[in-house]
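tool_call: predict_structure(chain=1)
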Amino acid sequence: MSHGSNGEGHHDSSGRESSPYIELERAAWSELAHESRNPLRADEIRALRGLGDSLDLEEVEEVYLPLSRLLSLYVGAAGRLHRDQESFLHRQTPPRTPFVIGLAGSVAVGKSTTARVLQQMLAHWPEHPNVALITTDGFLYPNAELERRGLLQRKGFPESYDRRALLRFVVDIKSGKDEVEAPTYSHLVYDVVPDEKVVIKRPDIVIIEGLNVLQPARVSEDGKAGLALSDFFDFSVYVDAGRDKIREWYISRFLHLRETAFRDPGSYFAKYAGLTHDEAVVEASRIWDTINGPNLVQNVLPTRSRATLVMRKDADHSVRYVRLRKL
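tool_result:
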């Protein structure tokens, strides 16, 4: 497989293709965990699985075990660097700020499952038992505000988030605050839940999962660039797959939800519960083609090259290869 498939590779003086990435097929990647023990039981894995995901024991052991081990190495190295820096500065060593992992990818690609699995696996390593998981959904503007701004049909696009609040949240984490709060989001009512907060207290690791977490900083009208969330990430993961496949997964998930969650009278999407199968396919296709698909192409996919590690999925949701940025 070509390292330069996304335009990142070039040829060195010997004619060989060079790249700032190491690309490992699944078989080679899975061998990296042969000495590590999978900490998750089969029933725990089932509980973590998202709609449509093919997460099983084999996937956890061959894909997520090496990744959690690699991340643990990064966390340990960051801790050593922290101690060395404080010593260099002749400062008494204060507690290290949390190690922050950004996790990005399209709607329906399975990034929420990836985030949950990593949270559970990383928490099993004794060096960092306290692992917090925050999704950026809570930082979406409430529906009423989106409607006021004419953005309800652009929910999930970068401008639909309170980016200032999200950046402040990450800055507070990286400032070493004892307690940091994040708003919560309900997928049932499709809105931010007022006055409901997630509180995280001195975590060792924070995973921040969302569509746009790898977005570059915005440039203001006077030409100045602000800070980007990713400026405060210690590691980032992009969950990737072919666009046609993700579209299929989205439609499939919509059809499943029509039979389950959409039937809850409290659901924002209860109006879809009465659709026939064919009508549901048409409606899911329309939503994808007018909202999620364009957002993927315009905003999410362009951030892939900013990730430390890319996990590329196959048609059955299993990870086929991993691309890691060289150090």
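agent: The first strand starts at residue 10 and ends at 11. Proceeding to next step.
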